[in-house]
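Archive entry: two folds, one per protein. Generate the first.
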Amino acid sequence: MGIWRSDAVQPSALMALQAGTMAEHLGIEIIGIDGDALRARMPVDHRTLQPHGRLHGGASVALAETVGSVAANLTLDPAESIGVGLEINANHVRPVKDGFVYATARAEALGRTTQIWSIRITDEHERLVCLSRFTVAVIPVTRA
């Protein structure tokens, strides 16, 4: 089971929760989950490019926050608490002009009130595109 509350979670079920959200608009897809990592991909196309024809840094950050948020919430009991973004940073390392980028989220710290996640975004050749650190606040469901 690894770090997840359930080992029966399927990417298709996670995608159903993204209907009508920014993740759906940007074409973000959850593509895999294993013992300690959640993976997603996003197309580099008209929705995610900046005017110079390269992947928009904001799209990379949206991908990182999406995969980090989904991962964080998979470690929590949804009847008691939810994880929401508190802070995110990103280093944009390499431009991408087309195809897909792939994000992998891994927990660095899973605390009672905060979590820290590292998200590596790579291109189709597994070259680093963006490295992000995402801090999640764990809050009671009643405050959501």
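Generate the second and append.
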Amino acid sequence: MPEEIIEIDGSKYEGGGAILRVATALSAIFKKPCRVFNIRSNRPKPGLAIQHLLGIQALSQLCNGYLQGDELGSEEIKFYPGEIKAEDLHIKIPSAGSITLALQTLIPAALQSSEPVKIIFDGGGTDVPFSPTIDYFSSVFLKILEKMGIKIELNILQRGYYPKGGAKVIIKILPCNLKPLNLVERGQFSKILVISGASNSLKDKKVAERQMAGTREVLGKLKLPIEEKREYYQTQSPGSQICLTALFENTIIGTDNLGKLGKRTEDVGKEAALELLKEQKSQACLDKHLADQILPFMALAHGKSQVSVSEITEHCKTNIWVIEKFLEGKFEIKGNLIKWTPN
């Protein structure tokens, strides 16, 4: 095995799972072994949760790699990547582990495959706490990736909520030479899209409609063009979510929120709408949640990239720190502008 190994302290900056996701993805792409320790040390339950564990195990399978320490709760792993190969991955998640977070680990490496990579999730959560909802993932994250030439096909067969999960999702990632991203000006505003969804068991209580009513309470006063979409699903655990996206000529910004026991249903939509208005006021091209997620793709593109973001979060600083350990290049932050220059 290679002797040189990149050491990554998982307690740096925000100290969450993003360090592990970015480090292992870049390790696979550049065939640089890594050791990640103090994994998620700043979280109430440190170490590998189910979505982190299954994500890195699937990544190891994708690149014919070798893992040490890949157990639930483990606070240290060593990863020795091999060659990335075109292979369909079948990931079985026995709980509501986040599918969107697992995909953050897998997508960058899958793009380097010579053939399309199909990933089938059997179980897991599409809309769960502390991770992007699948609607935000589809309507914002994937749409911005398209601007870099990335083509990803997403098919949601079944939704999954906490605690049982039970989702079924198929995703196909096509190989790509990433184009640089230059998003500094939003361009003309088009409309706001509201997607409000809930379990069939909550249909009689009109949960999806009441979440949308909460958004109207905030956005209705502004007389903005709004398109609404209401959905109900058969799920193993009851739950609900809402996703708001503001569409501009050059970009998309978004917010999302989850229903919660004890929370007024209308407030779920109201909170998401207030958050969207806050993002809109920033005049930035990327919302604060997408800002850190897009950084690895900027660094992997051929050439310079720059984006304006609503906020430089700890997640942003974390990902910049990890990326610069694997790639020869430099991020530069000026105000709300993040620039990437490869060496």
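Annotation attached to the second fold: The chain has two domains: 6-178, 189-281. The chain has a mean pLDDT of 95.
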